[in-house]
Amino acid sequence: MRALIQRSRLLQWATSGVVFSLVLTACASVSPEAGTARASTTSVTGQSSTVTYNDTCERTANSQSALNECVDHELSELNTQLSDALLTEAGRFGQHSVAAAQSQWVKYRDAECALEASPNRGGSIYPLIYGICERSLIIARIGVVRDAIAAHSQ
Predict the structure, then answer these.
(1) CA distance 33 to 22
(2) Are 12 and 136 in contact (CB under 8 A)?
(3) What is the predicted pLDDT for the residue at 76?
(4) What is the pLDDT of residues 46-75, one digit of tens each?
């Protein structure tokens, strides 16, 4: 199962159509109550932004449904970070422009992830593959939004 997830991660980066680098590192100090977090550093157009989410669940899950729930939890964390970044971006560029761009991006994300997960349609792993795709695209989107904010703040 773990090898399939690793392979899926590699495929999602290779087929996502987005060019950026991803460096995964473990956080050095996290309280035992919080668990261990993984930091994903995404570099887009030379700028850098750090996106973090807790992946303890994913590393300890022992069933398909548990893995699906883990990815759902990670997506919730990442969507909160994306919403925060979009609110900041709306303050800089205008609510209408940001909402229009985000609407188009959501259509792209949904179509891309449906395509990536399509070989598994009907299978119990489909939600996991779809969720991993969403996760990677959301991490990239957060980086792009944060970089746009930073570029226009200078």
Answers:
(1) 27
(2) yes
(3) 94
(4) 345 678 888 788 788 899 999 999 999 999
What residues in the chain have per-residue pLDDT under 50?
1-47
Which bin fits 18, alpha (ψ -120 to 50), beta or left (φ > 0)? Answer: beta
Strand partners, 38: 26, 53
**Is the model's pTM score more than 0.85?**
no
| Distance separating alpha carbons of residues 13 and 8, to the nearest angstrom | 9
List CB contacts of 20: < 8 A, sequence separation 6 or more.
42, 43, 44, 140, 143
Can you give the chain as a three-state secondary structure string? CHHHHHHHHHHHHHHCCCCCEEEEEECCCCCCCCCCEEEEEEEECCEEEEEEEECHHHHHCCCHHHHHHHHHHHHHHHHHHHHHHHHHHHHHHCHHHHHHHHHHHHHHHHHHHHHHHHHHCCCCCHHHHHHHHHHHHHHHHHHHHHHHHHHCCC
